[in-house]
TrEMBL record:
InterPro entries referenced in this protein's UniProt entry, alphabetically: 6-PGluconate_DH-like_C_sf, NAD(P)-bd_dom_sf, P5C_Rdtase_cat_N, P5CR-like_CS, P5CR_dimer, Pyrroline-COOH_reductase
Ranges of residues in domain Pyrroline-5-carboxylate reductase catalytic N-terminal: 9-100
Main location: cytoplasm
Protein name: Pyrroline-5-carboxylate reductase
Pfam families the UniProt entry points to: F420_oxidored, P5CR_dimer
Species of the source: Ramlibacter tataouinensis
Amino acid sequence: MKTSAHQAIAFIGGGNMASAVIGGLLRQGLPAAQIEVVEPFAEARDKLKAQFGVAAHERAGAGLQRAGLVVWAVKPQTFKDAAAQVAGHTGQALHLSVAAGIRSDSIAAWLGTQRIVRSMPNTPALVGKGMTALFARPGVSDEDKAWVEQVIATTGESLWVDAETDLDAVTALSGSGPAYVFFFLEAMTQAGIEMGLSREQAYRLATGTFAGASELARASQDPPEVLRQRVTSKGGTTYAAITSMEQAQVKELFIRALHAARERAKELGDEFGG
Ligand SMILES: NC(=O)C1=CN([C@@H]2O[C@H](COP(=O)(O)OP(=O)(O)OC[C@H]3O[C@@H](n4cnc5c(N)ncnc54)[C@H](O)[C@@H]3O)[C@@H](O)[C@H]2O)C=CC1
Ligand SMILES: O=C(O)[C@@H]1CCC=N1
């Protein structure tokens, strides 16, 4: 990654998402000495030190002053408390939140700055295949936006949304999305086992099918329903399976599930953003 005057990066919260971003930054050549983490749990701190060789502190201290970017990777429920502990310790940093639901208005009020980008990543970031949506508060400079893009690029792809409320939809779709894929993987693997395959065989076939179908969809100009039709021979096996799913209204239920996730994202903002 390119050198930059404000390259030191601090993470508030050192769990799953922080680890995904830290891993990406180190893979791209950011020195571990340029990263520090505030993480209250000793076990999590030990893991960060062992896995990444980064400094991890129990609480915010003077070291945070040198961070040009502060990444907020705490749970929505703990953001406000964490902000109260950290606010006085950061300098004129740019702030990047990955928390679901918590609105930038709340973050701005807690931190006393407008220099905030909100994001919604997902866990494939751990293997450099993340999808992240970004929203910048008015007043965030193009330079800051470019810096955030550069940081997030170490974990996969990103796109900007213009309306902050769209982040709730993004959370429901791609933030939570890997869990839906894993849910289908569980079901396909179980079905394979029930039909006589070994767990290993079934899981390998299921994961390879997801990866291959996703690649095909991305490479193709055709919409997914056309790709699906190409698999569905008349009177064949796919037809039997899709008919069974249509009768059970699987698609409608699935869409409803995403609406529930979006509602929950809104609620998180209301409950924990005050
Ligand atoms: N896990 C996922 O798939 C995704 C999570 N997110 C968001 O990322 C955020 C973090 O989620 P995860 O990394 O999964 O959670 P996590 O539980 O793995 O990590 C959160 C960390 O924050 C630490 N923490 C608690 N209080 C703190 C404080 N006062 N100061 C500093 N650190 C504190 C916890 O000890 C924990 O290690 C959440 O807001 C979530 O909405 C966003 C996209 C995807
Ligand atoms: O379930 C959650 O609330 C977080 C946000 C997106 C994925 N995990």
